[in-house]
Design brief:
Elements: E1 2-6, E2 11-16, H1 24-28, E3 35-40, H2 45-52, E4 59-63, H3 72-84, E5 92-97, H4 99-111, E6 117-122, H5 125-131, E7 136-141, E8 144-151, E9 156-159, H6 169-186, H7 188-196, H8 203-220, H9 235-245, H10 251-262, H11 266-278, H12 289-298, E10 307-314, E11 317-323, H13 325-333
Parallel strand pairs: 2-9, 3-4, 3-5, 5-6, 6-9
Antiparallel strand pairs: 1-2, 7-8, 10-11
Helix pairs in contact: 3-4, 5-6, 5-8, 6-7, 6-8, 6-10, 9-10, 9-12, 12-13
The structure holds nicotinamide-adenine-dinucleotide and zinc ion (ZN).
Zinc ion (ZN) binds at residues 178, 235, 251, 255.
Length: 337
């Protein structure tokens, strides 16, 4: 299966196929200015070996797996290694791993020699359905997530669902939260597959459906000025829960709780909770609403007048709406009493 993404910067293919990692060199083609493989220590050796064996002259750089490593220090280290190789302007950076490797590698590729070719090979479900497309790259700074970054479109994305065979169950559920989000805002048939459990027989179908939806949104609004904000469903409170939890909850888990918290339609909320519970995602947490509201207003996407949220009054159809902080607080606390 191949999806073509058309952006201002370039048009690129996403290959989604079992066993695609084995064909990576054939798909990527010659890397004239040198190939640099970036990965982290959490990516199982078998996937790194499978890729690096196809690029015998490539440099392989492995950094310590953690969200905390997505920082300027690791970024500088990567650039230093690339310069030492040397990787030339016509070289290729291949990022093999989850969203951390993708965001850091994408930012290194965006900035090294003012931008070199970037190939993403996402290996977590979250990265395969979400962070691998859209062109956003970033690192964290001073405890603030994704505060330094750039838009840099990949030249190609290779998704091999077989790499998910080694992914821990919690990480799989983390990615499923974003898939369920996609179903809620844009794909009623996908939501039905989650409700009846048939999604389990077709993970490749789930990945494809999510990418097709995200592609259609990103192509309409590359710079996140309008419709792309629909992808933030569940993220208004989700990001605040994530900050409040200090790492206890994963991003997808916070999005799951964030979707439940922002939904005003009781019937839809009950159906969503059932789907989330079935895949092992949390549906509520016990943070102090005042603290959550403080974190919402400190978010980089917030403005003085209020916040743009996503409303879902019908499964498969999200709508943007700007609400005041007072209204948002009412939504957050309405079921507490
Ligand atoms: N650029 C974007 O548009 C965008 C969108 C969403 C999220 N993100 C970013 O993505 C990051 C989160 O990504 P993530 O959830 O993939 O986390 P992650 O990259 O931290 O990966 C989770 C863990 O799984 C390991 N891993 C990777 N592949 C594996 C495999 N096949 N088998 C076993 N273990 C494997 C990793 O080494 C890591 O330890 C965050 O930094 C977030 O900001 C970016
Ligand atoms: Zn997200």
């Amino acid at each position: 299966m191949e999806i073509t993404v058309r952006t201002r910067e370039r048009t690129y293919p996403i290959t989604i196929a079992r066993g695609a990692l084995k064909r990576a060199a054939e798909l990527i083609g010659p890397c004239e200015g040198g190939a640099f493989i970036l990965t982290d220590s959490g990516v199982p050796r078998c996937w790194v070996d499978e890729l690096s064996a196809q690029f015998p002259r490539a440099s392989v750089h492995v950094f310590n797996a953690s969200e905390r490593a997505k920082n300027i220090g690791t970024y500088t280290e990567v650039l230093e290694h690339m310069a030492a190789c040397p990787i030339r302007r016509s070289g290729t950076l291949i990022a093999l791993g989850g969203g951390v490797v993708g965001d850091l590698g994408g930012f290194a590729a965006a900035t090294y020699m003012r931008g070199i070719r970037y190939v993403g090979i996402p290996t977590t479900l979250l990265a395969q359905i979400d962070s691998s497309i859209g062109g956003k790259t970033a690192v964290n700074l001073g405890g603030i997530k994704n505060i330094v970054g750039a838009f840099h479109q990949p030249s190609m994305v290779i998704i091999d669902p077989d790499t998910l065979s080694t992914l821990p169950k919690r990480q799989l559920a983390n990615g499923l939260a974003e898939a369920i989000k996609t179903a809620m805002i844009g794909d009623a048939a996908l939501f039905a597959a989650f409700e009846d459990g048939t999604w389990k027989n077709d993970i490749q179908g789930v990945i494809t459906a999510c990418l097709q939806y995200k592609r259609s949104i990103v192509e309409q609004d590359e710079d996140e000025q309008g419709i792309r904000r629909i992808l933030n469903f569940g993220h208004t409170f989700g990001h605040a829960f994530e900050s409040a939890s200090g790492g206890e909850y994963l991003h997808g888990e916070c999005v799951a709780m964030g979707m439940v918290a922002i939904l005003e339609n009781d019937e839809i909320r009950r159906r969503l909770e059932k789907v989330l519970c079935a895949v092992g995602l949390p549906v509520s947490c016990a943070y102090e609403p005042r603290r959550i509201m403080e974190l919402v207003s400190a978010d980089k996407k917030a403005s003085a007048d209020g916040v743009t949220i996503v409303r879902v009054d019908e499964i498969g159809r999200g709508e943007l709406r700007t609400v005041s902080y007072g209204e948002l607080e009412r939504i957050l606390t309405r079921r507490a009493g």
